[in-house]
Design goal:
single chain; alpha+beta; about 35% helix; about 450 residues; two-stranded antiparallel ribbon; six-stranded antiparallel sheet; 12 strands
Length: about 450
């Protein structure tokens, strides 16, 4: 999806790209030949793409290039499909033919194509020709507005969850090794160029919470690759995962080697697989994950752990640059979740209360905003802490934190929001007190 978005953004004729849906004439019953239906539709689209782009014996053609084909299939019973057709005013007899409770999968394809010249006079003829060639229903949806409408999962999540275990196994075997999402024509050539140059299209953080799609160099295992750069050689700043999908590129020259055996005959330890994008797996804060095979912490100080240590160092730099909480505070909240000593609401509240530095990116105060002043909480007098009575102990749970003082403008909306926040904190005081008592009792039992 990122590649297609960047391709459309860079293409000078992208405003002429159009999007169509081509549907198989007949649905496929569950446990039927779904694979054959997908292959037949894909081949027919490929043949159609060749015909509309290649001149005939008279040197005439529609001069249309197909850029992408994505397979998708919907799941519903015959009765449900008949009811939907009746609402559209299109009578259907699927229940009589297959049985009302038979699950049917209807295969269709999302197609992106590009008329390279003005064919307004040939447009009706082109529509009739395509319908006759495909021998199935098809619909032109006009110009491309959202790539997400074209590049989709082959099955909707709700349909997948509704499928039985046996049906899921059947779906897996019917779609295994098929090209569900297939770049074609000029887009295929563009994607191949990215791979040949060891590049990929990613959304790069450019500050102020904004992102921008760019071409970046893929990194090598161990973080040895230099900083990503654009075509002009300018270094791209931002948190970009460059190596996570390297291992999936079959045939890559520097793909991770097969783990070798150590001297004692056992498998090699701490084999780095890749670096995942930041995710909320262990704490309420997103952080990148180093994927390691045969992890052995005792061997980390040796040469085997050099790659892991390097990526840990890089991840810590990203963590600090994002003004995230101190790792000790993040681990404290994570331990609460792992030990199950608090509810999910309490854990979320603890994460929200974790102290971190507010970065304003500007030394001036703009209209309608507030200035942020950071001070050490422990250096303030009791009457300066501006915390509801009884919550000082909660804040004290996070030593070394920062207090962020707001100097608001005359804004009734802002004052109302702050008053609502103070009331919410006051209501949660009793729950925090109960949790602290429960945690203290648990610690006593463990000590005993």
């Amino acid at each position: 999806m990122n590649g297609l978005k960047l391709f459309i953004h860079e293409h000078p004729s992208a405003r002429y790209f159009r999007y169509a849906v081509m549907t198989c004439a007949e649905p496929v019953p569950a446990f039927g030949d779904l694979r054959g239906a997908i292959q037949e539709l894909s081949r027919r689209i490929s043949s159609w793409a060749y015909e509309v782009s290649t001149p005939d014996k008279n040197g005439e053609c529609y001069d249309i290039e197909v850029l992408y084909r994505g397979i998708e299939f919907t799941r519903a019973t015959a009765a449900e499909r008949d009811a939907a057709a009746a609402e559209r005013g299109q009578p259907s007899d699927l229940s009589a033919r297959y049985g009302a409770d038979t699950v049917l999968h209807h295969v269709h394809a999302n197609v992106l194509y590009w008329p390279k010249r003005n064919i307004s006079t040939l447009w009706p003829e082109f529509l009739r020709y395509t319908e006759k060639f495909m021998d199935a229903h098809w619909r032109d949806n006009g110009r491309v507005e959202k790539v997400e409408e074209i590049v989709k999962y082959c099955s909707k999540p709700a349909d997948t969850l509704a499928a039985t275990d046996d049906e899921l196994v059947w779906l897996y075997r019917q779609t295994q090794r098929l090209k569900i999402c297939q770049p074609m024509g000029e887009f295929k050539t563009w994607m191949k160029g990215l791979k040949d140059r060891r590049e990929k299209a990613v959304r790069v953080h450019v500050g102020h919470g904004d992102g921008k799609l760019m071409r970046v160099k893929k990194g090598k295992r161990g973080g040895a690759e230099e900083d990503p750069a654009d075509e002009d050689g300018n270094v791209i700043e931002g948190d970009v995962d460059q190596a996570a999908d390297d291992a999936a590129d079959k045939g890559a020259d520097d793909a991770p080697e097969k783990p070798t055996r150590v001297g004692d005959g056992g498998p090699a330890a701490n084999v780095v697989i890749g670096l995942a994008l930041p995710q909320w797996r262990h704490t309420p804060w997103a952080e990148p994950m180093v994927m390691v095979q045969n992890y052995d912490p005792l061997r980390l100080p040796t040469e085997d752990g050099a790659d892991i240590r390097e990526w840990q160092r890089q991840a810590r730099e990203w963590w600090d640059e994002a003004f995230a909480p101190e790792p000790e505070e993040a681990l404290r909240v994570a331990k609460m979740a792992m030990d199950a000593v608090a509810s999910s609401d309490d854990i979320r509240e603890a994460a929200e209360a974790a102290c971190y530095i507010v970065h304003t990116c500007s030394s001036t105060v703009r209209t309608g905003q507030a200035e942020h002043i950071e001070t050490d909480y422990d250096d303030l007098e009791d009457d300066e802490r501006d915390i509801p009575d009884g919550l000082a102990e909660v804040v004290a749970m996070f030593p070394g934190g920062r207090r962020v003082a707001h100097i608001p403008f005359e804004s009734p909306e802002r004052e109302a929001r702050e008053a609502e926040l103070r009331e919410s904190l006051a209501r949660k005081e009793a729950r925090w007190a109960e949790w602290r008592a429960s945690a203290a009792a648990s610690d006593c039992r463990i000590a005993a």
